[in-house]
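Hey,

The postdoc asked me to send both predictions to you directly instead of through the lab channel. I've kept everything plain text so nothing gets mangled by the mail client. Protein one:
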Amino acid sequence: MNLVQGNLEQLLLDISNKCFKLVIEMNVQDSQLAVTRQRLLEAAGEVFAEHGFRAATVREICRRAEANVAAINYHFGDKEKLYANVLEYAHRCAMQNVPSAPIADATPEQRLRGFVHAMIRGFLGEGRPAWHAKLMTREIAEPTGMLEVIVESNVRPRFMLVKSIAQDLLGGRGTDDELRRCAWSIVGQCFFYRFGYPVLKKLHPPLTYDDAEIAAIADHIANFSLCAIKELAAQKARGS
């Protein structure tokens, strides 16, 4: 009886060890797959940014990612779906801290300042690969079907948020056209400092987007926008 029990205990121990080893191997494999997927995203971003969607090749992307050509089909399905994932990834990195819903218990002015500071930090902060902005510029200049997806899922909610902030600053008296233009002006200033950097650097060579400069730019955009909206509110009050 003791012999049978001992054999059973050894068998259970062997099974447990094999299961543990299998779990470890599966975790390692999952980790390796995640690393490969991220390398493909980064390499594809660079290639798409340099050549555009149509001219970019799967072979070049895989060469830079040091991955097998079949890896794109495994992780993404095809080149078009890879592009969609890359574009969404780049936009999400830039906008991840930018609010898309009102901040509770904040005044309209605080909400506007918070939005602008978050957007400018997302656009200009360190750690953003150069291909992010270049790819988004290409997509705007040569739009694919993904532009509409990004606008509807990410851009429009934030656009509506800025319109609502402007409406609150105008005391609820802004027309839709006025609110739309206010929102475009606020967001447009943020885009200008991101995509206009090569020209700005030529005009002012010492320009660098360090923490102090980023904060100063955000304050300027917020102050400039608040003054403009307050003047619009004053004009409407005088005309009433």
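Protein two:
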Amino acid sequence: MSEIDSQADGVAEFPPGRDPAAGDRAEAELTVQSEERTEGASQSYLAGLGVVLLLIVAAWASSLEISRPEAPKERDAITANERRFEELKKSLPPHGVVGYLSDLDPSTAYGIQQLYLTEYSLAPLQVASSSDQAIVVGNFSDVSVAPAMAARNGLRIARDFGNGAMLLVRGGE
């Protein structure tokens, strides 16, 4: 005869010494444990699903970044010119007036633009549009003409900062 032999009239028969309420408690504990396992499994599933979705979004965002063409390093002429004259500016006095010499024609829009960009980049220092000062900023599109232009104006190249930016000074060696 098993623990529960028959269910006559809806009443279960239990062996002697067995508390029928203990069976109900055991069954309730098993149900709670089963629900906890199911709840834990669903939480693990949701956490895993969240990680997978996060990885998919990260991969998609990375593909957008990779497929986008690289932005130019200098977005505008002002920033490019400021960087070009950055080291030269450190060699100049913080205030006062310096001259300007360039191989660009000052009567053209581009020549005027380059003078204005140089003035902006070297502010608060004032840049005169002539080479009559003791210290002169050279702005050359063709650096090969710089020594001859400097000499014609009584100047010498004190330092070449590269990319056409030069520090010129009045006088001899």
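Summary for protein two, as requested: Residues 68 and 114 are 32 Å apart (CA to CA).

Thanks,
C.
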